[in-house]
Amino acid sequence: MQPGAVKDSRMTTPTSSYDGDRYATLLSELKERIRSARLKAAVAVNRELILLYWCIGREILARQNLEGWGTRVIDRLAVDLRRDFPEMTGLSPRNLKYMRAFAEAFPDEQIVQQLVAQLPWGHNVKLVEALKSDEEKLWYARQAVEHGWSRNVLVHQIESGLYQR
C-alpha cells in the first residue's frame, strides 16, 4: 500500500469469515452442478443432432423415392451443404448416406425421439451397418442406453451375438 492511501475494507475478505470445510463443501457442490449442467447440455445437443440427421435422411429417402433421384444427389447435397455450413462437420457424402440409411432403418419418429436419439451418432451408425433385423437394432439400442455402453462395447456385444444368447 502506498503511503497516505486508505485501505478499503470492502476489497479484502478476512480469512476468519468462512470455515474451510464449509467452503470446500460449497466448492464441491458447485463443481457437481457445473458438471451436471454440462452433461445435460451435451445430451440435449446430441439429441437434436440425431434428430436433425434423421430428418435429413428422411428427406433424402423421400425425395429419392418420390422424384426418382439417384445417389448422385447425395454428392451434390454434400457439396452445397458444406459450402453453406463450412463450420459444420458431418455433411460429407458418406455421412449423408448414413443419414439416409438411418432414416430407412428407423422409420418411426417416436422410436427415434424416445430411444435412438439418446445414443451418439457413432452408435447409430454401427447399429445400421452391423444389423439387418429391426428387432435386433432396437434391442441393442435399448441395451446400449440402459447399460451406458461405449461404441466399442456395443460392437463387441453385436459381434459376440449377445442378442441370440
Structural overview:
The chain is an all-alpha fold and 165 residues long. The chain is built from seven helices and no strands. The chain is globular and about 70 Å long. The mean pLDDT is 90.
- What is the overall silhouette? globular
Helix count? 7
> Biggest sheet, in brief?
none
* Rounded average pLDDT: 90
Helical amount: 55-70%
Provide a compact summary of the structure.
The protein is an all-alpha fold and 165 residues long. It is 68% helix and 0% strand.
Name the features.
single chain, 165 residues, mainly alpha, 7 helices
SSE arrangement:
Blueprint: H1 20-67, H2 72-84, H3 93-105, H4 109-114, H5 121-130, H6 134-147, H7 151-159
Helix pairs in contact: 1-3, 5-7
